[in-house]
Amino acid sequence: FRSHWDRLNDQVNVEVQVTVDKLVFDSEVMTLTVKDISPKNIPCVNKYPHITVGTISPEVKPFKTVKLLDKSFGSQRPNGVTVIDLGDQSLTLGGYVQAIFTMQ
Questions:
Q1: What's the pTM value of the predicted model, to 2 decimals?
Q2: For residues 27 and 79, which has the higher predicted lDDT (pLDDT)?
């Protein structure tokens, strides 16, 4: 785990472009799924690369988006989860990599 963290930390402040293709949300969190990232060598520890848009309150932690995506793309999507495919409206966004370490 630590070696992966070190590799991620080496990418801090690298300029990237991501293409997002889905908006996913439930009653607590909202996220955008990442379809493509450039440069390609940016590592991701999550099964579903994403950008957390926000949470309903400070008590709801952003890492809940990981669980939301696992549920959303599992065999059966639970009630209360909405997935909007952006289709031709997909967005390409630019920014910088920032490392976030969260104990879940």
A1: 0.81
A2: 27
